[in-house]
Amino acid sequence: MVNPIRSEIDLEAQGLHVGYLRLPHSVHRSAYGWIPIPIGSVRNGEGPVVLLMAGNHGDEYEGQVLVSQLLREIDPQWIHGQLIFLPMANFPAAEAGTRTSPLDGGNLNRTFPGNPLGTPTEMIADYIENTLLARAQYLVDLHSGGSSLLYHGANMLAIEPRDEEEGRQLRALLGAFGLPRAFLHAPNPVHSATAARRQGAMSIVTELGGAGVVQRGLLHEARQGLLHLLGAIGVLAGPLVPPQPPGQTRFYRVSAQHYVYAYERGVYEPLADLGEHVHAGQPAARIHFPETPLREPLTVAFAASGEVVCQRAVASVQRGDCLFHLAEPDEP
């Protein structure tokens, strides 16, 4: 099956090229229309190919700013290989400022490997995995907490390595990025990181703040880390590459027990702070019921011990909403 998405730029061409991926989209307003997904490429000679992706979720803005900024600033003569820029990967969601696409409700990071003949989000996922990642050795997918979550500072995520050698390579890449925390987690077949692994590429996913805003300090920290990583990979040289990463990375592991969820609809009151170390059984939050004022609030407890790395940014909750995300230190 051939994906109907067509690129306006030639990914084999040397130099800087910017255009759109055209996703055919016939609607009442525009019978022969297409969805414009921005894409850029900077290629110079032989070397690694890196896909820099943001806007996987449309309400996560730090990556969209960072990828667009680097595309404007990088001179092709500094490149040894190729950088592919995808600042608004799920364009319909990014244009609307929503986590999922308003066209089909699709969550791009729950849709890989996609379907070339499916919904718009499924077609985008298929194109990213089977066209863009198929030519790349590295993926950097820039996420944040979005509208509903707030992460503690700048963080990275990566799939647990399959062997010792891959583990050494992965930890070296994460250390070169140099954000404060790196979470190792089990592979999920519908995530971009697993799509990269299926195509033989190594991946780093970030989680930068959130709450629907862009924090100046986090953006600067992520930029420095990304530029240092690209220098360490060998795809970028020149004046933009900092002499060292922004900091030293600590490694953590994450499992299903590290998440806390609401089991009632109401207003949640957090009982722990970002960065706090908590233990299993410790109260995590109270769910209040203002519409039934005589009803006592429901207390929710942590099921595991660890550091609070993420919490819900919105007080109103429904059953199934994530309230907290913990991570457990895992130093080698």
From TrEMBL:
**SUPFAM superfamilies associated with the record:** Zn-dependent exopeptidases
Q: Which cofactor does it need?
A: Zn(2+)
Say if the entry is tagged with keyword Zinc. Answer: yes
Q: Which segments cross the bilayer? A: none
- Looking at the record, the residues that make up the Succinylglutamate desuccinylase/Aspartoacylase catalytic domain are 47-231
Q: Which UniProt keywords apply?
A: Hydrolase, Metal-binding, Zinc
Q: Cite the InterPro entries for this sequence.
A: AstE_AspA_cat, N-alpha-Ac-DABA-like, N-alpha-Ac-DABA_deacetylase
Signal peptide positions on this chain: none
What Gene3D superfamilies does the database record attribute to this sequence?
Zn peptidases
Give the protein name, as stated in the record: Succinylglutamate desuccinylase/aspartoacylase family protein
Query: What organism does this protein naturally occur in?
Result: Paraburkholderia ferrariae
